[in-house]
Fold these 4 entries.
Entry 1:
Amino acid sequence: MPRATAVKIVTGSLQGMLRVHMPHQRGYHIEDILLETELEGSILQLAAGNFLGFAVYSLQAVGSSYLQHSKIYEHWLEHTAANMVTGGFGGVAGVEHIAV
């Protein structure tokens, strides 16, 4: 199972390709890919944190070396482009929020 505290690199593309890498050593190795999946739309921004109340996808360990994703929530924006910011708003410690 991938270690929860290990450094992971998450990338997303305008073509909808989502990848999660956990590099073990210098250089690229196919074994470093934990997840590779094509989503239904473009990925405009990625954020990771300890969020409460809003999530789009959840990642679960599959076996000892891979992840799988499942859609938790989907919300369509009224406009073609948006921005998001994450952080501990309101001085609440230990919880992060998303503002779109």
Entry 2:
Amino acid sequence: WTEHMRQIFVECEKQGVTRTDMTTVLKELKMTDGMEILFQCIRDHKDKIRVFVASDSNSWFIDVLLSHFEIKDLVDEVHTNPAEWNGNLLALERYTTNEHCERCPSICANLK
């Protein structure tokens, strides 16, 4: 998946898609029904709840969305593919290599 997304972001750069363009699109996303209630419950009981994000997306997307929805303060740890901007290219790295499972290169088997 990460390699596929790398190729997508290279193509986006070739097509002139900018960081601002991607930010605008991400901020158009809406929470799935029930998520606002869930995050309010987490906020109300944060002293008793730890929140971990495990995603095969990337750190930049997650950071933009957590900030946009004003829930960044609720998340204790994020485990995802690192991403950083090099000009107008969102460059991705793998979170880790999966040495425990031959079915996929996903991060799931590497979380402990």
Entry 3:
Amino acid sequence: MWAIGQCGLTDLKCGVKVWLHLMVPMLRVRALSGYAIDYLEKLFIKHEDLRPAYSVIGFRDFFPILDVVFSSRSNLPVSQQRKLIELYPKVKMVAFGDKADCLRNFFPSFLARVGTGSSAALQTELLSCLVTCLSKDKHCFSVWRQMYIKHMKQSSILLEYLLFHWVTLSNTLDKKVLRETTRAFSITNEELAAQGKKEDMEGYEKCVAACTSLLQKLSNSGFPWLLVFLGLVTVVAGIFTLDVYTSQGFKGSKTYRFLEDSGLLDFFIQVWLRIELYSRIVYNWLAENIPYYYAKVCEFCGPYLLLVWSKLKAFWTLLVEATQAQRDWLAIKIPECLNWIDAKVPWLWSSIKHYSSLIWSGIWYYSIWLWEHLVYSLHMAGIWLQENVFTGNLSLENMSKTLSSWLAVMQEYTSALVKWCIGVWSGKNN
């Protein structure tokens, strides 16, 4: 082992092959496991750049190593087990490599091993690797869809893991592909329920609940402007309340002094007095004129409304009397017709309900698909316009600068106008 392992001191790829084929089987032998682990540690210390050894460890070779690293029944001493766990991330890096398309080969085995009575550490590592596959290789979503029915229990565990760590994982996953995959799972769940097979599927109820919750999170991914606004209002109100409370009243508070020093307090008082004055005038006018105009409207429109109401009542009475025979006939024949249909084709109503549900699911799915593609097309059209039309003087930067200068000028004129109005107002009051 020592003689063959010397080649790894100069060539990392050769050294990883020697460790993989010669020394990994020795990890289960207590007397030789220490040398195998020390050799791997020397390789990684000697060669800091792991890129030459990428893809040397295939997915068939990786999982025996994974079992040894996280096995609770391993014969390794505690110190060697701990050292092997510390070296495991670099082993995984070598196995995954820098090509994302190789992760689709790892995904089926990772998913099949979830929830098989393994240790908690191995379970966490499997779920973490599954998320890595989904985030780096979008084709893994397609593989997951194909495996969903046969691995529903494992899928429910993965879906719950995504929900529980959604805050940290939402930025690493492609939300569009995840949304399409979750909708596909929901449609599959409905089909299984319609076929009466949900009782035979372990983890069905958890999958249904997880898909519903995940779709809600994916649909509520916008920026929470309302919450931010309410938060700002709450903070300002809290600061104002604390200021008034600590100052033994509003007049002794810093807010009052600021408003008084800046002149805003007098301005607000004058505005409030004007609003109160004109509100009182409007209220008195309404209290005096509304009864008068209401009486005039009733005097003019009342007879016509009574006439229309009497005609409608007469028409309704005539319609009821004229259609009495037909309504009695329908009341007898419709139940007989429904009973006859139920006796001849008892499966008709359930089939109509089932296919209506399928049609609605298809319409909903393709409507969402059409909307997403429309949004994507508009986004690409915007990018094309930005690159081909909005250039030069029409570029967004130049337009932004022009708009900013216009806003600055408008702000100056508006400020001057406000100052002039306040001066005029103060002059009239004086």
Entry 4:
Amino acid sequence: MSEHSYQHSLDILVRLFKKSKELRKTMNITEHHHLFSNISDILEVSKRFFADLEKRHAEDPLIRDISDIVENHASTHFKPYIIYCSNEVYQQRTLQKLLASNTAFKEALKHIEMTTDCGGLPMISFLILPMQRATRLPLLMDTICQKTSTHLEEYHSAVKALKSISKLVKQCNDGARRMERTEQMYTIQKQMEFGKIKPFPLVSASRWLQKRGELAVCTEELSIFWKTFTNKSYYLFLFNDVLIVTRKKSEESYLVMDYATLEQIEVELLESSEGQLASGSPRSSSSPNMFKVVMKRNSEGKEEQIALVVESPSDRARWVIALQHHKHTDNEDLNKEDLPQVEIIKGHRAKQPDELSLQQADVVLVLHKVEGWYQGERLRDGERGWFPSSCATEITNRIAVERNVRRMERLRKETDV
């Protein structure tokens, strides 16, 4: 998308959606702010950036370099992007809530989306443009670096611009992640009841949720402690440093049964014949979806274990890999060129904490493949997570694979990502 086209789309978002009196009437001040944040500032930033690009073009139609312009704006004028991206979690939640429970909002929104200016596109496609724009600029500057001879002044200017814009994008990502994690931790803390279990101080700036979900319990593999709770499933909260086992009382209430830090946890895969569902009905011998969690030192300082069953091989793989993640944090021994690569052909928005949001044309290194799912590392920034294999196509050209690895290494070296 050209800067002019991007600016035009931002103008539509501000003019038709944010400034719409009909839409404004359907929500309160907080909802309106969460939905549109500082998008007007983003539009002004884009106008200023485009004006400088146009000025450079007027000086010489054959533009030799724009790196100085990019660096200046990235370091001086693009700060509103950090605020906008940090608001993303509130924006998405507010939009989902309004669409689900506010009929007047839905009708007013549909009326605007049907106009000729919108081209039939939903408002969300305009709201996510700043996030998409920010993440694309480092790739643009990296391409300029690739195409420019290293002995030219323009090359060094492009490297400086690449570092400035990459620093901005990192601040955007960190801001969004920090806001989401902080709010999530406070919410989970309020929902947990420790009862007779020694309370665990959950909220910490260095702790975040990696995975959560309800799993059935197998009886054969359990100790006396766990047999007390047969016929019950358990709701697990897996953080980056601790596992908390709870019993779900309601959608917003969980009774803590036990917990252990991840360094005190071992995971073992089980064959179906080794366990039986808590309901008493044996699981098919062909089902490989069971595993055991051994807490060498639980909340009482004792060893405890629990055998669990999930619905599919991909679910088991995701839980097992997540539980063992702390033991494989670096993966420095992996040869990146030997890993399969995929290009994203359809964007994916993460629905679970262990999933990876992806944009069309992203390139991802595949670390694991399980039953319709990939776990991968996004080339441009090293972020990891799971995503459906249906939204990606494998890159089979060896030259392209090697070029992508070199680009990844160069990007991370130049930008300190």
